[in-house]
């Protein structure tokens, strides 16, 4: 048996990749997380610009995420 740890954002945004009936969801790990951007080198100079954009556009950003991600229904298997 093989396994993979998959982020729920990936699962919700690309459900088509997980439609194979031989794939099963075995466990959900519940923890809080945050979205962000990692900047390195010269791009670090843009840090303040990104921060201002995110602060000014939070609603638009979360609306975009909501539009791109589908709800994933989890059914418990009872033995």
C-alpha termini separation: 20 Å
Mean pLDDT: 81
Helix count equals 3
The proportion of residues in beta strands is: under 5%
Topology:
Elements (H helix, E strand, L loop, with lengths): L7 H6 L33 H10 L1 H11 L11
What would you say this structure looks like, in words?
It is a single chain. The protein has 79 residues and is mostly helical. It has one domain (8-68). The chain is built from three helices and no strands. The protein has helices spanning 8-13, 47-56, 58-68. It is elongated, with a radius of gyration of 17 Å.
In short:
With 79 residues, the protein is mainly alpha-helical. Helix content is 34%, strand content 0%. It has one domain (8-68).
List its salient traits:
single chain, 79 residues, mainly alpha, 3 helices, elongated
């Amino acid at each position: 048996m093989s396994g993979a740890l998959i982020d729920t954002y990936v699962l919700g945004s690309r459900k088509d990749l997980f439609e194979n009936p031989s794939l099963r969801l075995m466990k959900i790990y519940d923890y809080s997380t945050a979205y962000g951007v990692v900047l390195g080198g010269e791009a670090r100079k843009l840090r303040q610009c990104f921060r201002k954009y995110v602060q000014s556009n939070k609603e638009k950003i979360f609306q975009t995420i909501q539009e791109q991600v589908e709800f994933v229904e989890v059914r418990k298997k009872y033995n």
